[in-house]
Amino acid sequence: MLRHGETDWSAVGRHTGRNDLPLNADGEVQARELKRRLDGVSFERVICSPLLRAEQTCRIAGFFDHAEVDSDAMEWDYGAYEGRTRAEICEERPGWVPWSDGFVDGEPIAAVAERATRVLARVQPDVDAGHRVAIFAHGHFLRILAACWLKEPPVLAQRIALEPARVSVLGFEHETPVIRRWNC
User: Fold this and answer.
1) What is the secondary structure of the chain as a DSSP string?
2) Which stretches of the chain drop beneath a pLDDT of 50?
3) What burial letters (b/e) apply to 127-150, b meaning 16+ CB within 10 Å?
4) φ, ψ for residue 60 (rounded to 5)?
5) Per-residue pLDDT at 8
């Protein structure tokens, strides 16, 4: 799992769901560093969100030429909270927690988990064959995907923060799905 690099909105904590923002200069540097860290690593399959920030990260990292663009890997739809910070939302809804309280006019967490489960189901044959799969996507989506991988409720994602342009590795210990590495 590879989270996209920083955007102007993510740098200041604005919820960036479906707005198609590009990487900022720091995000481009982060994507180049991701390329350096992945030098010599190959993936038999690459899945990428269609949103520009994920595509740019995938392209700069050197994997977009054989990536499958998958709309199921898009970020959570934040509805009326798109572009707003947590502090701004909490002015209207004190104590608001996205994982349990959701987003006004946005996508329910269960729907995000359904999309994540579909992505996992599509790559499962590759995983079963021992192939490496890369998924270039977004912070909240990838956290929920990790919870689904672990066969846990999607709300577990609130406990596993994910920074921009970081690598996380899901795998198995014996037959049990585990997180092998996180936020590397």
Assistant:
1) -EE----HHHHTT---SS--PPP-HHHHHHHHHHHHHTTT---SEEEE-SSHHHHHHHHHHT-GGGEEE-GGGSPP--GGGTT--HHHHHHHSTT--HHHH--TTS--HHHHHHHHHHHHHHHHHHHHTT--EEEEE-HHHHHHHHHHHTT--GGGGGGS---TT-B-EEEEETTEEEEEE---
2) none
3) beeeeebbbbbbbbbbbbbbbbbe
4) -65, -35
5) 98
> In this predicted structure, what is the pLDDT of residue 174?
95
Looking at residue 138, its pLDDT comes to: 98
Specify whether the backbone of 25 is left (phi greater than 0), alpha (psi in -120 to 50) or beta.
Answer: alpha
Catalytic choice (4, 15, 138, 140): 4
Is 75 catalytic? The answer is yes
Predicted TM-score (pTM) of this structure: 0.97
The residue annotated as part of the active site, out of 6, 15, 55, 75, is 75
Each residue of 46-76: pLDDT tens digit? 999 999 999 999 999 999 999 999 999 999 9
Cβ neighbour number for residue 167 with a 10 Å cutoff: 17
pLDDT at residue number 110: 98
Q: Is the dihedral of CA 153, 158, 160, 164 positive or negative?
A: positive
C-alpha of 81 from chain center: 18
